[in-house]
Design brief:
By secondary structure, the chain is of the alpha/beta class. It has 15 helices and 9 strands. It folds into 2 domains: 174 residues, Rossmann fold (3-Layer(aba) Sandwich), CATH 3.40.50.1970; 196 residues, Dehydroquinate synthase-like - alpha domain (Dehydroquinate synthase-like, alpha domain, Up-down Bundle), CATH 1.20.1090. It has a 6-stranded parallel sheet, sandwiched between helices. Strands 5-8-7 form a 3-stranded mixed sheet. It is globular, with a radius of gyration of 20 Å. The model has no long low-confidence stretch (mean pLDDT 96). The structure holds nicotinamide-adenine-dinucleotide (NAD) and fe (ii) ion.
């Protein structure tokens, strides 16, 4: 890794260790989103803006929560303009509605897109003198966000518990990262009842996003006792439940297990970070509009194959924890089993092995952007250079 990137990474590691990350008050189980409404009322919310998307409104997921808030004494309005991988105009539109309606509380309901938009709207609202786009980067807002509550309807991003939010530039399609411990919500509800209608394809892709968070956090160079425990639990829950959740969306136990897995994995990577899978997946999302989870799912086996020697002991630990093998088999064989299980799960839940969209001419720029994103920010176990990264992306081309 270039020397400057090494220094940057070292500094970040010290900062990440020193900064405490608050944990949201968390309600779990069927109907927990309605219980959360009571808490929101108890925390003095007067008028809330619900940040969500049209599909969830049409599915009828938002109305009961809006009514429960009303019954608890919290006036509320709905902003349903969030689009997948939200762009800045989405944040600006939601912010304008928040201001026009004089809301004092933000409630994000949806996948990572709605939750991230909610986090940034709440931060921008509290920093009225700042253009929302200037919040890109680490802890850019002077003021803490308005009180924020998040209710995930996908089990994938873990945004309900992370210090991050991602908003894309509408012109360049570049993903802008907003990182701030204060955007972690005050409370969250992991309510499997909101997830039963999630289409199989979205369940599969978002579940593999959570798996990627857990594995990248575990094999990276910034582990801790806490992130190890969370990442291991998440990997096991996903291996045991994702296939069922995809095959039978109304299996409430599998849905709840996946919601917990996503939450654990979110907590793990919020401290231990992600790696090359995310760096490459972000380029595929930006360039071709491939959904975040799907891009991660396809890239994950490639990066694991590349890192299998450097990370063999950690992969072996995950294999043992998930019941794939025993100590005596040795790190190499156990790591192989873990990677094969990831590939098998991808196949079981209908994830392709590559993308037809990838154009050979685009590969050098995407590889370079992925390495710029990763080096100095992600504590990857094995350094990747431009040629290797290009070759990796080329292997993902489906002809
Ligand atoms: N903040 C973080 O820490 C973090 C981490 C990873 C990814 N992200 C970001 O999250 C975004 C992706 O989020 P996502 O993968 O959850 O997808 P998403 O929020 O974009 O949702 C995908 C689609 O699924 C639909 N959907 C969501 N829940 C549903 C349900 N219960 N039933 C039916 N349909 C449902 C949505 O309407 C949408 O059309 C990206 O912008 C990504 O960059 C953020
Ligand atoms: Fe992710």
């Amino acid at each position: 890794m270039p020397a400057l990137a090494k220094i940057k990474l070292g500094l970040r590691s010290v900062i990440m260790k020193l900064i405490a990350q608050p944990k949201p008050l968390t309600f779990v189980g069927e109907g927990s989103s309605l219980k959360l409404c009571q808490t929101i009322a108890q925390l003095d919310a007067r008028k809330a803006i619900i940040v969500t998307d049209k599909i969830l409104v049409e599915l009828g997921l938002i109305e009961p929560i809006s009514q429960a808030l009303e019954a608890a004494g919290v006036d509320n309005v709905i902003y349903s303009g969030v689009t997948p991988d939200p762009v800045w105009p989405v944040v600006e539109e939601g912010l304008a509605q928040l201001r026009a309606e004089q809301c004092d509380t933000v409630i994000g309901i949806g996948g990572g897109s709605s939750m991230d938009a909610a986090k940034v709207i709440a931060l921008a609202a509290a920093n009225s003198q700042t253009n929302p786009r200037e919040l890109t980067g680490l802890r850019k807002g002077k003021q803490a966000p308005l009180p924020t509550f998040l209710i995930p309807t996908t089990a994938g991003t873990g945004s309900e518990v992370t210090i991050a939010a991602v908003v894309s530039d509408p012109d360049t399609h570049e993903k802008n990262l907003i990182g701030d411990t204060r955007i972690i919500p005050k409370a969250t509800a992991l309510d499997p009842a909101l997830m039963v209608g999630m289409p199989a394809g979205v369940t599969a892709a978002t579940g593999m996003d959570a798996l990627t968070h857990a594995i990248e956090a575990y094999i990276g160079e910034w582990p801790s006792e806490e992130t190890d425990m969370l990442a291991k639990a998440a990997v096991k829950l996903i291996f045991d439940n994702l296939h069922t959740a995809v095959e039978n969306g109304s299996d409430m136990a599998a849905r709840e297990a996946m919601a917990l897995a996503s939450y654990y994995a979110g907590m793990a990577f919020s401290k231990a970070m992600v790696g090359y899978v995310h760096a490459i997946a972000h380029q595929l999302g930006g360039k071709y509009g491939i959904p975040h989870g799907l891009a991660n799912a396809v890239v994950l086996p490639e990066v694991l194959e590349y890192s299998k020697d450097a990370a063999s002991h950690r992969l072996a630990e995950l294999a043992i924890h998930t019941g794939l093998g025993e100590h005596y088999e040795g790190d190499g064989a156990l790591g192989r089993k873990l990677i094969d299980r990831v590939k098998e799960l991808n196949q079981q839940v209908g994830i392709p092995t590559g993308f037809e969209q990838i154009q050979t001419a685009d590969i050098p720029a995407m590889a370079s952007a992925a390495l710029t994103e990763a080096h100095g920010a992600y504590p990857v176990p094995e350094y990747l250079d431009q040629a290797e990264c290009e070759a990796m992306i080329a292997r993902l081309q489906l002809k």
